[in-house]
Amino acid sequence: MLNELFKRLGIVHMYSTPYHPQTNGQIERFNSTMDSKIASLSNSSRSDWDDQLPYVIFNYNTSSHSTTNTIPFELMYGRSPILPCDMQDPMVSLQIDPQYSTKLREHVSSLTTNAQHNLRSIQQTYKTRFDANRSNPSYAINDLVLIKTSKSRRKFDVRHEGPYRIIQRLTNKTYIVQHVHLHHLTQQVTVDSIIPLISRHTST
């Protein structure tokens, strides 16, 4: 049922790996923006943050976004938002246009196409920049590794857990690992969380 809804809406459902925020980059960026805006409007104890949500959402939806170079409000309604600071004519005249609905759909479709083009362009720019400064590690089944701890830590806390053994490769960047001694501990991780562990052999 849910998959059929996604299909009708043109949504591609992608699963993310825990503690890998890059997978949900758009959501993480949205959360960061919302957090900072709410914090700037809330009281010192942050107890009235829910009262500020309507204002923050309105501000977010009526601001031009750098990735799409478009205002979300205009994408939804096909017109620019009227802000409280905008001068308005007290005399309002309405014109009847029999082609209004058709023109509105065409305008919104054009806005959406431009936004998608801008989004793909900026994503490719980010990808090119990211790929130029990243390594491309690969691991084999039974390789021993350490896993970066996802728990909040203080300065001298352990930063890596393990040892773990690679037991399954899901994709080029995602693996299933199992603790060498505590076999009930398995988890799905990305290469960003993996530290290769080199066994040291001593000669006799």
From TrEMBL:
PROSITE patterns: INTEGRASE. SUPFAM superfamilies: Ribonuclease H-like. Gene3D superfamilies: Ribonuclease H-like superfamily/Ribonuclease H. GO terms for molecular function: nucleic acid binding. Residues 1-80 form the Integrase catalytic domain. It comes from the Eukaryota. GO terms for biological process: DNA integration. Pfam families: rve_3 (PF13683). This is Integrase catalytic domain-containing protein.
